[in-house]
Write a structure and sequence with these properties.
Blueprint lengths: L1 E2 L8 E8 L5 E9 L1 H10 L9 E9 L4 E3 L11 E6 L6 E7 L2 E7 L7 E2 L8 E6 L5 E6 L2 E6 L6 E2 L6 E7 L5 E8 L2 E8 L6 E2 L9 E2 L11 E2 L3 E2 L5 E8 L2 E8 L4 E3 L8 E7 L5 E8 L2 E8 L5 E3 L20
Antiparallel strand pairs: 1-5, 2-3, 3-4, 4-5, 6-7, 7-8, 8-9, 10-11, 11-12, 12-13, 14-15, 15-16, 16-17, 18-19, 20-21, 21-22, 22-23, 24-25, 25-26, 26-27
Length: about 325
C-alpha cells in the first residue's frame, strides 16, 4: 500500500483512468520514462518500451483515505501494465502486460495475486482487452484483428472483417454484441458482431473521420487519443463522432443503422470522447471551440447543453469519466 500523493520521481506522471463500479475507488496509472528514451522515440517516431526505459503500473486509490493499492505490481509479470478493469462480480481484474515485446491479456485476483495469461496461445501484440458483463467471455484485438474467447482464453475466435485495421472491441451492456472500429488506420467505421461471431456488419459511416484527437495542437508520432464509438447504457444505440465537412459532430446510431445528428456546430468545431451518464440521461463529451478543448454535457431528452470546464489556450480537457453516486 502507498499514499496517492508524494511519489516525487523525476520523469514520472500519473493519469486518471476510471472508477470502480461502486464509485469508491479511482483507477490511476503511474508511468515513468527515461528522458533519453523519450528523446529517441520522438526522433525515431516509434516506441521503445523496454525495461529500464519505460515502466507503467495501475493502482486503485481509495477516495475515503487516499491509500493506493498498486495491484499490477503484486507478483509482477511485467514492467509495463495497462488497461486495468474490474471483472464482474468482484472476481478480480483484467489488464494487459508487455512481455518480451508482446502485449498479452491477463487476469488476477482482487488482491493482485494469481496473475494468469489468457491470450489463448496468441503471440501477437494484444490490446483493448475487456470481459463480457457476465464474465464468461473476453475480447481484445491482436495485431489489429479482433478476437472473442472464453474467459480463460480458450476457444479463441477471430472476427473476419477482411479489413487490416480492427480496434478496441467493447461489449454491449447485455453482452449480446461487440462494438469495434474496422477499416484502415485513420479511416475506420463502427462495426458490430454478436457474441457468437455471427451478425457481423458495419453499423455506420463516419465520413472519413480519422478516429483520434490530439491532446493539444502539437504534432507528435503518438497521434493523440483514440476517439471511439461507445454504447448507450441500455445498449440500444451507439454514440460516435463523425466528420461533417470541416467539423466533427456527434451522432446517435441505432443497431439497425439509423443515424441521428446530436450537434450542429460552427466551422472548425471538433467533438470527441462521448460518454453517457450511468442513468442514460446525459452525454458528456469534449469539444474544441475557438482553439480550446473543454468538456460539455448535453441532455439526451431535450438537447440542452452546458459547459463543464473553462480551460484556456494551451490546456485541454479530455477523457471524461462519470462516477457512480457514492452514498
Amino acid at each position: 500500500m502507498e499514499t496517492a500523493a508524494g511519489h516525487g520521481v523525476s520523469n514520472s506522471w500519473t493519469q486518471f483512468a476510471g472508477w470502480s463500479p461502486d464509485g469508491t475507488q479511482a483507477i490511476v496509472n503511474r508511468g515513468w520514462q527515461h528522458p533519453q528514451n523519450a528523446e529517441w522515440e520522438e526522433q525515431q517516431r516509434t516506441f521503445r518500451m523496454e525495461p529500464g526505459r519505460w515502466s507503467l503500473d495501475a493502482s486503485l486509490v481509495s477516495l475515503a483515505d487516499g491509500v493506493a493499492d498498486r495491484v499490477t505490481a503484486v507478483e509482477r509479470v511485467s514492467h509495463y501494465n495497462s488497461g486495468l478493469f474490474f471483472l464482474p462480480e468482484k472476481r478480480g481484474f483484467g489488464f494487459t502486460a508487455l512481455i518480451d515485446g508482446g502485449s498479452r491479456p491477463f487476469v488476477m485476483q482482487p488482491d493482485g495475486r494469481g496473475k494468469r495469461d489468457v491470450s489463448g496461445g496468441g503471440t501477437g501484440f494484444s490490446y483493448g482487452y475487456s470481459a463480457s458483463p457476465d464474465g464468461s467471455h473476453i475480447s481484445y484485438h491482436e495485431d489489429y484483428q479482433v478476437y472473442i474467447a472464453n474467459a480463460d482464453g480458450s476457444s479463441r475466435q477471430k472476427i473476419e472483417t477482411g479489413n487490416p485495421f480492427n480496434f478496441a472491441p467493447q461489449w454491449s451492456p447485455d453482452g449480446k454484441w461487440l462494438l469495434f472500429v474496422s477499416g484502415q488506420h485513420g479511416k475506420a467505421n463502427p462495426w458490430i458482431v454478436q457474441a457468437d461471431g455471427t451478425g457481423l456488419r458495419q453499423l455506420a459511416d463516419l465520413g472519413g473521420y480519422q478516429g483520434w484527437v490530439l491532446f493539444l495542437d502539437v504534432l507528435d508520432f503518438h497521434q493523440g487519443s483514440s476517439d471511439l464509438p461507445v454504447w448507450s447504457v441500455d445498449g440500444r444505440v451507439v454514440y460516435c463522432s463523425r466528420q461533417c465537412e470541416d467539423r466533427v459532430e456527434l451522432f446517435e446510431v441505432t443497431l439497425s443503422g439509423e443515424a441521428k445528428q446530436l450537434t450542429s456546430s460552427e466551422s472548425g468545431t471538433l467533438h470527441y470522447h462521448p460518454t453517457p451518464s450511468p442513468d442514460g440521461r446525459w452525454l458528456l463529451y469534449g469539444s474544441k471551440r475557438g482553439g480550446v478543448r473543454n468538456l460539455f454535457v448535453r441532455s439526451l431528452q431535450d438537447g440542452s447543453e452546458r459547459q463543464v470546464t473553462t480551460f484556456s489556450v494551451g490546456t485541454a480537457a479530455m477523457w471524461p469519466h462519470w462516477q457512480k453516486s457514492v452514498k
